[in-house]
Amino acid sequence: MSMNNDMLEAYLFEMHSLLEQLDDLVLAAEEAHTFSQDDVNEIFRIMHTIKGSSAMMEFNSLMTIAHRIEDLFFVIREKTMDAISEDLKPEMFDLIFQSIDFFREEIEKVETNQPLSTSIDTFLDKINSFSAKISGEATEEESHAEEAVLSSASAPSAEEAAFASTEFPYGLHVFFDEGVGMENLRAMMLINSVKDYCEESQFDYYPPDVQLNPETANFIIDNGFYVRFRTAGDREEAIPAVKDNGAVKNWQVFDAPGTASPAPVQTSKPVVSEAPAAPVPEPVPAEEPQAVPAAQQSAAQGAAQQSAAKQAHVKESLISVSLSKLDSLMAVISEIVITEAQVTASPDLKGLKLDNFTKAARQLRSLTDNLQDVGLSLRMVPVSATFQKMKRIVRDMSKKLKKETNLVLVGEDTEVDKTVVDSISDPIMHIVRNSMDHGIESDRAERIAAGKDPVGKIILSARQTGGEVIIEVIDDGQGVDDDAVLNKAIRQGLAQPGMEYSHKDILNFLLMPGFSTNTEVTEYSGRGVGMDVVKSNVESVGGTVTITSERGKGMTTTLRIPLNMSIMDGMEVSVGDSIFTVPISDIQQIFKVSDINIIQDATHGEMVKIVDNFYSIVRAKDFYQLNGGTDNLDEGVLLWVESGDNSFCLFVDELIGEQQVVVKPLPDYVNNYGIKNYGVSGCTILGDGSISIILDVATIYASQNN
Amino acid sequence: MSEENGLFAKTDEARSALSDKVHETDEEKYLIFRSSNILYALSTVYVIEILNNVSITRIPMVPDYIAGVINLRGAIVPIVDFRLLLGRIPEEESCVIILNIRETSVGIVVDSVDQMVDISRSAILPVPSQNEHKLVSGMCTVPGGVSTIMILDGEALGHVHE
After folding, report:
1. Nearest neighbour of B76 by CB, restricted to A664, A678, A680
2. How far is B145 from chain A, CA to nearest CA, in Å?
3. In Å, how far is A363's CA from the nearest CA of chain B?
4. Is B125 inside any structural domain?
């Protein structure tokens, strides 16, 4: 692609955020079964932006569709949602969702450098036919409205009466062509041409601030533009100026009540004299049959506008920064943290009594802590965007599978590292799909019989505890059928027939590669990727997946993900003269044993019993073939470690202490010897400048078992 | 005044000396170090610094010639024991030369560092085929001396692990 990459990047960023906004908006609107006028304006605006940006980038398919949707919403905006009959609404929502999907697909093509769709005709037809349906209905209403206008002929409507003035009693009410844009400036131009026919002091106009205030454009779109003359003769003379203006759709004359013309007396007479001076109460158009709801709507609109303004303000204070810049910032911060420890714990200071230094060092310490916290927080983003996407999936699937289901989001504002968000998005989607597909009962009667709410429920929650984020997907469906899973596991060769398996073991089969319980492949799940992919994705960011389920009650899938991967709490342990770091999050318990507690197996493996289970012992000294270190179990300590489903005891010489460490990768020069397969996953620099090797518990377990 | 003139004269001298060197394009600076009583030379373009008294953290499950890693101002730098790499028994005494080979840092442990010399490219002779070693690209005699030095191939040192 030859175009400017920055531009493309900005375009994609804009498109993604617009589509997300659109998705949220339409989902919320669908729940409310209608679009508010605000929603309509917003969608119109979004489509307009998409159209403009796509045209600039020469993405024609995107531009054309956006243009059509924009047109459609222009009609809706004019006629308001009330003009659309109830039975058309579901169709409209579907249409908009389809177009969002279409935009997403096209954007993906742009991102992957594929050619854009050229055959969009069927989709266009769909939009067009829907537009036709709406405008068909709307025109009917419009003709009614026009009749009403005609019947009142040159007599002022209540609205016009409100804009008549005693000083300038002879009015012209002008409407511009729909969608010409910049209505306020067109009004200004109109005024300028009126000046050619009439002295400036002989007429005035409303809104009065068209030249300076672009907001007036909306008023003119909604209510038209008013020009008022002192004499009827001036008005007659000025009419050609209005007539010749290319953008004017129609216009009508009106006279203030009480003038010579035989105007019928209007109900709103007392308002007349003060109305022009007080433009704040928006006049209710007389054509609108439902005056009261409209007034309410406009009040709500005002409130919404305020909140929109607030939102816009929040947006302005955000900047987007490339991740690589943040990464380098974090690298520098890590260095500072290490260097600070090196300075303040320097061996040169041993035995010296340095009060001022100690004080300053303490201050520095708290500042670097702060700096580290701020640095980390920069990379944190709320999970809400990922969660919101699930709403759409649940919505689509409930329709398709005819399983009515509500998605409840809890703790959307929980923040996690950007890389974590990226890597959990797919797993969450997969789990939610699974819950929809296999969890929620297909038959309402079945749910009612089980005493459940006929509408299924999926709770997606996120919360933060200590150094972890816990994400749970809870459904109240039928739960896991142990027997079915076990049979399947046996068929797939994952389980041994005739063996006893606990409920927990059986649930673990679900996470194994090559396991998919659904016999038929559906659109949503069972496409050969299973929960094992979820598991490996989550493990790639250092997290774990667990499933709990009760037959008939539902299933809960829990993802536990470390908040941050580059800094972690580690336990420093020594073996001979080597120092290792074991992630605190992996350590279940630390204890001493004596030889008598140890059980030997047939192949000289060692085990120890903790609570009700036996765990094998891995001696770090033997495992890593180290020279130093004790062989005597009485002298060392056992770390009972657990990572994922693997649990065992690691034997080391002694504990040095707990420390927050910055994880550093080992250079390729040493990584190339396959040490990662032995659980040497990285290293860290300790306060005294020495290096400690970080152990990956899960890999040690796997390596030991091979 | 006269003093200033003298100063100028000096810089001029230095300048001409410098330009002399620039002209001798076939000469390259080499760092000579000793390992198991053999002299080796490595082009100084690879050499970053020389460290004494470094504490090397051993890494388990790697060949013995990978001495481990060190903390060099916050960067983790791998260290290769040059003596073990060539199959010799290391001496007590040692120092570490930090190299930068194609943007990657690596340190080598040697017995001791000798001196810096300029070696003319024409003075470097090929190694007889039966004495060939993948790390040694040539040999020569110390300028103005009698001992022989092995010229090391810096690039090859960067690929010990591959």
Report:
1. A664
2. 36
3. 22
4. yes
A528 and A572 housed in the same domain: no
Give the rounded percent of residues in chain A with a pLDDT score beyond 90: 8
CB B149 within 8 Å of CB B141: yes
What letter represents residue A371's amino acid?
Answer: L
Query: DSSP character for A678?
Result: G
Structural domain that includes position A620: 567-705
Q: Are the C-beta atoms of A429 and A393 separated by less than 8 Å?
A: yes
- What's the CA gap between A424 and A537, in Å, rounded? 7
Cα A85 to Cα A482: distance, rounded to the nearest angstrom: 49
Report how many domains make up chain A: 5
Amino acid at A89: K
Amino acid at A441: E
Q: Residues A117-135: pLDDT tens digits?
A: 777 788 888 888 888 877 7
In chain A, residues with a C-beta closer than 8 Å to the C-beta of B104 are: 667-669
Burial class of A73 by CB neighbour count within 10 A (0 to 12, 13 to 18, 19+): buried
Q: Which of A356, A379, A402 is the last residue of a domain?
A: A379
pTM of the model: 0.45
CB neighbours of residue A528 within 10 Å: 8
Tokens 């956006």 correspond to A66
Which ipTM did the prediction report? 0.79
Amino acid letter, residue A373 = D
| A262 pLDDT more than 60 | no
For A414, the enclosing helix (H) or strand (E) is: none
- What residues contact B47, with CB distance under 8 A and at least 6 apart? B31, B97, B98, B99
pLDDT reading at B54 higher than 50: yes
- Which among A153, A151, A171 is positioned nearest to A228, based on CA atoms? A171
Cα separation, A132 vs A136, in Å, equals 6
Question: If you count residue pairs, one on A and one on B, with CB atoms under 8 Å apart, how many are there?
Answer: 77
Verify whether the Cβ–Cβ distance B74 to A624 is below 8 Å.
no
Instruction: Tell me the helices (H) and strands (E) count for chain A, helix number first.
Output: 22, 22
pLDDT beyond 50 at A315: no
What's the number of domains chain B is made of?
Answer: 1
A297 falls within a domain: no
Q: What is the pLDDT of residues A208-228, one digit of tens each?
A: 777 777 777 777 877 788 888
Instruction: Give the per-residue pLDDT at A452.
Output: 87
pLDDT tens for residues A321-338?
Answer: 887 888 888 888 877 877
Cβ contact A670–B161 (<8 Å): yes
User: Nearest to residue A608, comparing CAs of A569, A659, A648?
Assistant: A648
Does the structure show a pLDDT above 50 at A71? yes
What pLDDT is attached to residue A220?
80
Burial of B72 (0-12, 13-18, 19+ CB in 10 A): middle
